[in-house]
């Protein structure tokens, strides 16, 4: 991981996953408290289970969202390739420009 692109991606992933670990449980607890307040009359075992499940679910969703949001497409022309010039080095993808003339009308 010595190239700058890998370091930039690594730092972006670490930062966003760190924020997800903080925000996810808080958001899950808020949603869980709302659901528990609507579903149960008193704060009992059922309410606690809803809070725990919502905190876990919120954390997982935030981690997934944070991980996906840290990915980015490469700049045009800088896509990973197995050759230096991906199109020009493959003769089957490149042909010389010429005037293609049809011998006659196209038959259908």
Question: Notable features of this structure?
Answer:
mainly alpha, 108 residues
Lay out the secondary structure.
Layout: H1 4-39, H2 45-69
Helix content: 55-70%
What's the alpha carbon Rg, rounded to whole Å? 27 Å
Form type = elongated
Strand content: under 5%
Question: What does this 3D model show about the protein?
Answer:
With 108 residues, the chain is mostly helical. It has helices spanning 4-39, 45-69. α1 (4-39) runs antiparallel to α2 (45-69). The longest helix is centred in the first third of the chain and has 36 residues, at 4-39. The model has no long low-confidence stretch (mean pLDDT 80).
Quick structural gist:
With 108 residues, the chain is an all-alpha fold. It has helices spanning 4-39, 45-69.
């Amino acid at each position: 991981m010595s190239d700058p692109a890998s370091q930039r991606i690594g730092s972006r992933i670490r930062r966003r996953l760190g924020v997800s670990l903080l925000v996810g449980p808080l958001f899950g607890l808020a949603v869980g408290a709302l659901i528990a307040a609507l579903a149960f009359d008193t704060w009992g075992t059922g309410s606690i289970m809803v809070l725990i499940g919502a905190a876990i679910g919120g954390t997982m969703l935030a981690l997934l969202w944070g991980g996906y949001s840290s990915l980015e497409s490469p700049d045009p022309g800088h896509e990973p390739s197995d050759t230096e010039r991906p199109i020009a080095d493959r003769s089957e993808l490149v042909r010389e420009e010429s005037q293609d003339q049809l011998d006659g009308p196209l038959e259908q």
